[in-house]
Write a structure and sequence with these properties.
The chain is an alpha+beta fold. It has seven helices and four strands.
C-alpha cells in the first residue's frame, strides 16, 4: 500500500477499510518490518476508539519489529483522547507560512488525577522535538513538561508546522482554550 508512505495520519488513508482488513494489513506490515504501514493501521484503530488493551500489545510488537521505520507521529502509547485531539486541531489553519511551529506534549498526571493525561500546548521557532528536549533538559522549560512530559504528539499538529509567528501565537492560545473547553486538562497556550 504505497499511499501510506506519504499520507499524513490526519488524512486517515485506511478510514474506509474494515477492522479485519486493518488487522490483516497490520500483520503484513509486521512481517515486512514496515513501520509506516503498521503505524497507519494502529493510528486508524486508535481513531476508531479501539481499547487500550488491544492497542498496547500491537504497539509493542511494532516497536520490536520495525522501530527504525516507525514515523514520529505515532504515539508511543494508547491515548483515549487522540480522536478528539485530531478533530480539534483540524479546526485551525495558518494564514501564512513561516518559521514557527505549534506543538503538543502529552503530560502524565496518573499520580494525581482520575484522567491521567493532560496536554501542554506550545509554539516555538525550533523543531518541536528539539524544543521538547529543551523542556526535558530544563532549558527555558515549562515545569509541567519537565516533570510530567511523556512524549511529543506530532500527528494532530502536523499541519501547524512552519507557519508565521503571528499565526503560531494565535493558534497556540486558541487551541489551548478550545481543548480546555472540551474537557481536556491543558497547560501552556500563552
Amino acid at each position: 500500500m504505497r499511499e501510506t508512505l506519504t499520507a499524513t495520519p490526519a488524512s486517515r488513508p485506511l478510514r474506509l477499510w474494515s477492522n479485519a482488513e486493518i488487522h490483516a494489513r497490520f500483520e503484513a506490515a509486521l512481517g515486512a518490518a514496515d513501520g509506516v504501514a503498521g503505524a497507519h493501521c494502529l493510528n486508524e484503530l486508535m481513531l476508531r476508539g479501539e481499547m487500550s488493551a488491544n492497542i498496547e500489545p500491537r504497539l509493542e510488537r511494532l516497536w520490536r519489529r520495525a522501530a527504525a521505520s516507525i514515523p514520529d507521529w505515532l504515539p508511543m502509547r494508547h491515548i483515549d483522547r487522540l480522536p478528539q485531539l485530531y478533530e480539534v486541531c483540524a479546526r485551525f489553519a495558518a494564514r501564512r507560512r513561516g518559521g514557527f511551529n505549534v506543538y503538543l506534549v502529552l503530560l502524565d498526571y496518573s499520580d494525581s488525577r482520575d484522567d491521567p493525561w493532560g496536554f501542554y500546548v506550545g509554539m516555538t521557532g525550533y523543531p518541536p522535538q528539539q524544543r521538547f528536549d529543551q523542556h526535558k533538559a530544563g532549558i527555558r522549560h515549562a515545569g509541567c513538561v519537565l516533570r510530567r512530559g511523556v512524549e511529543l504528539l506530532t500527528g494532530p499538529v502536523m499541519h501547524l508546522q512552519q507557519i508565521s509567528r503571528g499565526d503560531a501565537l494565535r493558534i497556540e492560545s486558541q487551541l489551548a482554550d478550545v481543548l480546555a473547553a472540551e474537557g481536556c486538562f491543558v497547560q501552556g497556550g500563552h
